[in-house]
Structure to design on (302 residues):
């Protein structure tokens, strides 16, 4: 069945159901979400719109206005964080109902069984993503190279598929500048992903990806007791709250802001424990929020 036929079948299936959950598409795909919301509303179904992207949350767009209008004022909008919910309300004041459901509950909890980092352990920087420039691959290599030139003992491990030629070029650069201190693991899943997180002490994620909201990789790292270094993008500041993670204000200053702390702050068991505790709190909140959402869908408060 083609994608178009699957979409058409999904739209036809809306009629006659009590509640319709829509994971909101971005770009032109938002028009399909709008059509689904309109059909659901006309059919008398309750509409739940789940927002996963920050690309339209801070800027009022024609597509978002159309989606909000089609869904109606009784629609329930689901945001990934309190920050996202507040930004959504600010940009679209006609939205009346917003619930927060974090995504920490989606993380593989086998990460919680990994040992915490030890005091004075070797500094190992790690990065995992679909490797591309806007995910921060260049800045990851820049940071590791800067620390290496400054005489800081470290290793760098990068995992994930290359998405373009530029990311492959930066992997080659890391090998030239760091030699055997650098390792590229390629795509990792299952036990290989667990081994990756167990092997690193700091997760470097200078992403300015336009859709970035609450990246699961940051929660994965925190669950493994890894300290996160990131940009103030999407809801990442809220995500890292309570953890020893560090935030840079801009990609241009990422290395300048992060390098001094990396030189002066050794790997510590206390920071590793704090990172995991911050994840556990997020996990508790996420599970409660999912439970509340389930009750709202099954037994609406009318």
């Amino acid at each position: 069945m083609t994608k178009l036929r699957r979409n058409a079948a999904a739209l036809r299936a809306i009629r006659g159901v009590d509640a319709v959950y829509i994971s909101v598409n971005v770009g032109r795909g938002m028009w399909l979400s709008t059509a689904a919301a309109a059909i659901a509303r006309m059919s008398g179904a309750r509409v739940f719109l789940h927002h996963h992207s920050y690309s339209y949350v801070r800027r009022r767009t024609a597509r978002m206005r159309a989606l909000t209008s089609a869904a109606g004022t009784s629609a329930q909008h689901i945001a990934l964080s309190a920050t996202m919910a507040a930004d959504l309300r600010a940009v679209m004041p006609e939205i009346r109902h917003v619930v927060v459901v974090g995504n920490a509950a989606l993380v593989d909890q086998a990460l919680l069984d990994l040992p915490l980092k030890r005091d004075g352990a070797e500094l190992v920087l790690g990065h995992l993503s679909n490797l591309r420039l806007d995910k921060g691959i260049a800045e990851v290599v820049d940071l590791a190279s800067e620390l290496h030139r400054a005489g800081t003992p470290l290793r760098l491990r990068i995992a994930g598929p290359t998405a373009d030629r530029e990311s492959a070029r930066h992997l080659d650069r890391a090998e030239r500048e760091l030699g055997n201190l650098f390792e590229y693991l390629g795509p990792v899943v299952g036990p290989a992903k667990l081994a990756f997180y167990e092997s690193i002490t700091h997760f470097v994620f200078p992403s300015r990806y336009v859709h970035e909201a609450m990246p699961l990789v940051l929660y994965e790292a925190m669950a493994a007791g890894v300290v996160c270094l990131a940009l103030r993008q999407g809801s990442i500041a809220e995500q890292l709250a309570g953890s020893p993670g560090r935030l840079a204000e801009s990609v241009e200053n990422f290395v300048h802001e992060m390098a001094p702390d990396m030189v002066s702050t050794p790997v510590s068991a206390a920071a590793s424990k704090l990172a995991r505790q911050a994840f556990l709190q997020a996990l508790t909140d996420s599970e409660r929020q999912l439970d509340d959402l389930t009750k709202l869908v099954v037994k609406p408060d009318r």
Q: What stands out?
A: Residues 269-298 form the longest helix (30 residues).
